[in-house]
Amino acid sequence: MVTNKPANEIIENFKKQAEALSANLYRVNDMKGAGEQLAKIVEDKGAKKIAAAPSGMVSGCLNAVEDLNTYVYSENLQLHVRDADIGLSEVGKAVAETGSLIQDGTVLDQRLVSTLPPVHVALVPTGGLIETFNEAIDYLNEKQEKPAYVSFISGPSRTADIERVLTIGVHGPGELHIILVDEAGGEPGEQ
């Protein structure tokens, strides 16, 4: 995607919008930094079980949690995700304008780890940032092989259907942590 805005402005807008939706955003230089940030989240939450949807980025940061007395499951996730403390996934694209993640949920494991555990940690390459929602729709329409299932994740789960009182985490994760990884994707819109 070609953009007129400087990369740092797009990243800052994404951060502002994601945080306005109660997401926690961290920017790191590389996968080592992503692993270190993941370890901090695991320690902070006292997580004992992680359900991790297999991907290159996920594999690249899991070694950082090996010594934390945390079990990591990346196979047979249907058996493990319901009682996982953290769901970990790679999300290839995100929209700066809305602070949303664009998840290709064609593979069931991706959907499971981002919807069932109380905490979702998403790894996003900086180059996967798209400036506007319209550009995101164009991106999806231009794909040769269109995903069978796409989710736009905008902050943690929230609802106000009971007495119009906003409640976080009823229909999905109560926390969303986004780790934006520079090395994994260059400048916004370059991927």
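[next item in queue]
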Amino acid sequence: MSKKRRLVRERVLQALYAYEISREPIEFIIENIVGDLKKQNDAFEFAKNFILKVVSSSKEIDALIRQRVEHWEFNRIAIIDKIVLRMGICELLYFEDIPPKVSINESIEIARTFSTEKSDKFVNGVLDSILDDLKSTGQLKKSGRGLLESTSTKKKQE
């Protein structure tokens, strides 16, 4: 399942990139970039819901990113990094069945594959910081066995 989900996440990244660049209607982009996943209904539904949630929550998510990158101009963050961060934060906030560690690890791997040499470390730092805040404020809502104890190990190591 995880390798399949990685491929779906990569397609979600492509769709969100196309949307960011073109501003074509999101339904058009979904149909053209992930429409072939309809044969695998679960994969298509996950991709479609993920894309729509990132787009509909982008203002809230971007505000969280801006809080973490005070020393950077938001507009100077690489587009791919920004989209990967939006995806990771969206999973942390709205996909209760995905463990935070999985969301962060997937984001790091996608950044490593599709963005710059230092993007994986940048994405990891921002997402770890947001995860810590979500946990400390009680905003992290995860359900299912093993989802909360598999979160960031940074605190345990300190």
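[queue empty]
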